[in-house]
Amino acid sequence: MAMRGFTVGGREYAALIVLGSDDFDAMEVVEMIDGSRGGLLLEFRMDEESARLTHLGAEVGIPLLRASLEIFREEFLEPRRAAGLALPAW
Fold it and tell me: Please, what sign has the CA dihedral across residues 24, 82, 71, 18?
């Protein structure tokens, strides 16, 4: 698992990236509070056929969603495109 930190609106977040699962790859987004992970805000999953947002927390603003989608694209879709692999519907 890899972790990528980012800031939105002065708040710190982390994208926890899990690649190579048997069924799907995933990215979870959590708020970082005093250096510790807070609760799950967003979860994205991707398999050979689809890319999905499987969890959307109740208080997720559009700026956080947009920043998270950009990280998902960079970490999941761009490497597949660069390798010449098929992309799920995006």
Answer: positive
